[in-house]
Write a structure and sequence with these properties.
Elongation Factor Tu (Ef-tu), domain 3, 2 domains, 295 residues, single chain, 6-stranded mixed sheet, Gyrase A, domain 2, alpha+beta, globular
């Protein structure tokens, strides 16, 4: 990512949760600790099923008297419905503000030119009253910005940024091993730990109860993580649901197909040195990419 590039992420949307119970409401249901989130620190988190399986993931950013949830836009309606289900008597308001705010990505280098900026995961500042933050999942993803649409192009001009095709950003994210496109295809098909959320700073094991906490903690304690979500390198698009095999043995299944494919892989079945090995899927030779941050 070059210093003066900006990637407008039109596939992202914003949910705003506000009200006197907003912190406690989120604290009781999401995987990360809301006590970490402040005007100067944002966090990656997720919402799981009671069994600990994936439903949604998002970046939580403090905003005035509430929180922004930066999430994939095609999941927003379902996410809001789920949040409303958990709302009960909580004194909160849940709004879809995707028509008012735009999510974008810039380089860490550009972020560090802003006043008071620090190159630390999740570190957050305000620029023209909009939050700018280092992506809390991985330092290599650059910085994230949430800009009021009325100020978007003026901010781009003031910062001397140049618009780039978002595909370049998502190509990089895919090779880095972080799924951000078509994550709806993951719902209820794998556990939060199998999504690598611990390695992406999305789970806090000290915060106490949240939805899916019991099974997540049990898997962690017993080291029962035998499968991992991993990116696939292929010359042709492969379909969601396709089996992946190695030496005539099924070792995983494609969960996200298309341009940025990811599969749930039986990690123990392929050994540690698999980067140069060929795997098979739908009659095609494919390769698995092991993220550098995944042990």
């Amino acid at each position: 990512m070059k210093k003066d590039q900006i990637f407008i992420l039109k596939d992202r949307g914003i949910v705003h949760i506000s009200g006197e119970d907003s912190r406690d409401f989120l604290q009781n249901i999401v995987t990360n600790d809301l006590n970490k989130v402040s005007n100067t620190l944002s966090a990656f988190s997720s919402l799981l099923t009671p069994q600990g399986k994936y439903l949604f993931d998002f970046i939580i950013v403090k905003h005035k008297h509430g929180y922004f949830l930066d999430c994939e836009i095609n999941q927003i309606d379902d996410l809001i419905n789920k949040l409303e289900m958990y709302k009960l008597n909580s004194k909160i308001e849940i709004l879809n503000l995707s028509n008012e705010f735009q999510v974008a990505a810039i380089s860490n280098e550009k972020f560090l030119t802003l006043d008071n900026a620090k190159n630390e995961l999740g570190f957050t500042i305000n620029y023209r009253d909009d939050p700018f933050l280092i992506d809390p999942r991985n330092i290599n993803l650059g910085a994230r910005v949430i800009i009021n649409l009325e100020k978007l192009y003026m901010s781009i001009k003031k910062l001397g940024l140049k618009l780039e095709d978002s595909e370049k950003y998502y190509d990089f994210s895919h090779k880095l091993g972080i799924a951000q496109i078509n994550t709806k295809d993951l719902q209820e098909k794998l556990f939060g730990l199998e999504c690598n959320f611990e390695e992406l700073n999305g789970i806090d094991f000290k915060k106490g109860c949240y939805v899916g906490q019991e099974n997540t903690a049990r898997m962690k304690m017993k080291n029962k993580i035998r499968k991992r979500l991993m990116p696939i390198e292929t010359k042709k698009n492969i379909k969601s649901g396709s089996e992946i095999s190695f030496k005539n043995e099924s070792i995983g299944k494609v969960l996200i197909g298309g341009q940025y494919p990811f599969a749930l892989i039986k990690f123990d079945n392929i050994g540690k040195d698999f980067m140069d090995k060929d795997f098979s899927c739908d009659g095609l030779k494919i390769k698995l990419i092991k993220p550098t941050w995944l042990n």
